[in-house]
Amino acid sequence: MERLQKVMAHAGVASRRKSEEIIEQGRVKVNGEVVKELGTKVSKNDSITVDDVLIEREQYVYVLLNKPRETISTTDDPKNRETVVELIQGVEERIYPVGRLDWDTTGALLLTNDGELSHKLTHPSFEFPKTYVVKTKGRITKKLGNELAQGVMLDGQKTAPAKVNILSYDRPSDTTIARITLHEGRNHQVKNMFESIGHPVEKLTRERFGFLSTDGLQSGEWRFLTPHEVKQLEQMVND
């Protein structure tokens, strides 16, 4: 669900502020009913008219990016660092990242202008899975892996159960490779979880976003999602 004035602005009706004035003037109908409340939220299936003319909504775009290191998961950056949006060339629609990956984290990142789907993919109540491959300092025992899977305390709150697999241990470099699948998305959660068991993260890659992977995409490359993939995402969060 997105605010009505935001949808109007994206459709090119007017600026967001001017769209609010148009709503308050009673010139907007949602599914045939006049709406004057600025807090009104609409879904992609709602019919919206302005002065009884149906608005043409911005076409939804879904992009999967293999995020490289040293890029910011925002639409702009006051420090003029490179953003993930700047990597997506040739897309006219105003897309934005679904959730965030840290500056030094790589891997699967979805960008879209579908606010309703974006909300469902990121809100904890929908428990959307995200899988990471982690390189950490030190050897992680099976016992410590089980602790992570069962949940650890972060900021006074226990993390939700996760799936953890210890993939390998390299003795010369004293590093462990592990895979972890989460169904929640706190800030810096993976790094903080491994830090809490005494194994700081040296490298972090999001391997999968739900069923979406970066297979076939080099670092910095992207592709459009297929209609079938979009329907799969919608089905996952709606089920």
From TrEMBL:
The keyword Isomerase applies. One of its GO terms (molecular function) is rRNA pseudouridine synthase activity. Gene3D superfamilies: Alpha-L RNA-binding motif, Pseudouridine synthase I, catalytic domain, N-terminal subdomain, RNA-binding S4 domain. Residues 2-59 form the RNA-binding S4 domain. Its EC number is 5.4.99.-. The keyword Repressor does not apply. GO terms for cellular component: cytosol. Keywords: Isomerase, RNA-binding. It comes from the Bacteria. One of its GO terms (biological process) is enzyme-directed rRNA pseudouridine synthesis. InterPro entries: PsdUridine_s_RsuA/RluB/E/F_cat, PsdUridine_synth_cat_dom_sf, PsdUridine_synth_RsuA/RluA, PsdUridine_synth_RsuA/RluB/E/F, PsdUridine_synth_RsuA/RluB_CS, RsuA_PseudoU_synthase, S4_RNA-bd, S4_RNA-bd_sf. Belongs to the pseudouridine synthase RsuA family. PANTHER family: PSEUDOURIDINE SYNTHASE FAMILY PROTEIN-RELATED, RNA-BINDING S4 DOMAIN-CONTAINING PROTEIN. This is Pseudouridine synthase.
